[in-house]
Write a structure and sequence with these properties.
Elements lengths: L11 E5 L3 H8 L3 H22 L3 E8 L7 H24 L3 E5 L7 H14 L6 E8 L1 H17 L10 H6 L15 E4 L18 E4 L9 H12 L10
Parallel strand pairs: 1-2, 1-5, 2-4, 3-4, 5-6
Helix pairs in contact: 1-2, 2-3, 3-4
The structure holds 3-methylbut-3-enyl trihydrogen diphosphate (2 copies) and magnesium ion (MG).
Length: about 240
């Protein structure tokens, strides 16, 4: 297992949990079974992040493009998410985890929405790990919403175009101060060997370190997570400057 340097622990880790479908295919089981196994992986990574002292964990659970999949798969994913929050709510509360949603979840099935809202309310006062679930999330959609909000304020005479700053844009994102309020992720992990962002955290990831791991998400273990963090800790972050 990797030796981690406590002082270099990232505050915010974001994960593109990919490979559930391929995991299921290899076993000759339905895709939804892959998503179920993926939920168990997610649970372990939430627990482990908390143990490592990470402050914010963001997981990409469902993208604005994932609606293109079959209704069976889509509703299966939402049902599993509800199973997860219902089953583990008590534990999340006990572990002082605060759950937030990044994305417009108003369009997901009613029962799933209610269960998620209960989780948000019940964990609202917790101040341990903040666990952000990116659900019906798309980075372009998020930036578009922020820009529209700014345009409305300009139109209403509340803001001059020259007063718009990077912070104004960032505040209008799901991760902005009005909702989930978290710093940019230092580290973005993607599993399953794919090396792309798939519309995840385009703005916030401007200076994130990327670690691509070959394990399919249901096979991704806390040890693998630590390896990714160790890889991050070995990187030289320059932010455009020089030593
Ligand atoms: C990631 O696994 C989970 C979601 C996108 C909801 P996939 O379902 O994309 O798995 P692969 O990429 O088909 O293996
Ligand atoms: C990204 O994975 C979305 C999630 C992990 C929720 P996809 O599997 O949907 O992305 P592509 O289609 O391979 O780019
Ligand atoms: Mg995929």
């Amino acid at each position: 297992m990797a030796e981690l340097i406590k002082e270099l622990m990232p505050q915010h880790v974001a994960v593109i949990m990919d490979g559930n479908g391929r995991w299921a295919k290899r076993r000759g089981v339905p895709r939804v079974a892959g998503h179920r196994a993926g939920m168990e992986s997610m649970k372990k990574i939430v627990d482990h992040s908390d143990k490592l002292g990470i402050k914010y964990l963001t997981v990409y659970a469902f993208s604005t493009e994932n609606w293109k999949r079959s209704m069976e798969e889509v509703s299966g994913i939402f049902k599993l998410l509800v199973t997860f929050v219902n089953r583990d709510l008590r534990e999340l509360i006990d572990n002082n985890v605060r759950v937030r949603i990044l994305g417009d979840y108003s369009t997901i099935p009613e029962d799933s929405r209610r269960a998620l809202e209960k989780t948000l309310r019940d964990t609202e006062k917790n101040d341990g790990l903040q666990f952000n679930i990116a659900l019906n999330y798309g980075a372009r959609d998020e930036i578009l919403r922020s820009v529209r909000g700014i345009a409305d304020r300009v139109k209403a005479g509340e803001l001059e175009p020259g007063e718009i700053t990077e912070e104004t844009i960032a505040e209008g994102l799901w991760t902005g101060s009005t909702f989930a309020d978290c710093p940019d992720p230092e580290l973005i992990i993607r599993t399953s060997g794919e090396e792309r962002l798939s519309n995840f955290l385009l703005w916030q990831g401007a200076y994130s370190e990327f670690v691509f791991h070959d394990a399919l998400w249901p096979d991704f273990k806390p040890e693998d997570f630590e390896d990714c963090i160790a890889e991050y800790q070995s990187r030289d972050r320059r932010f455009g400057g020089r030593k």
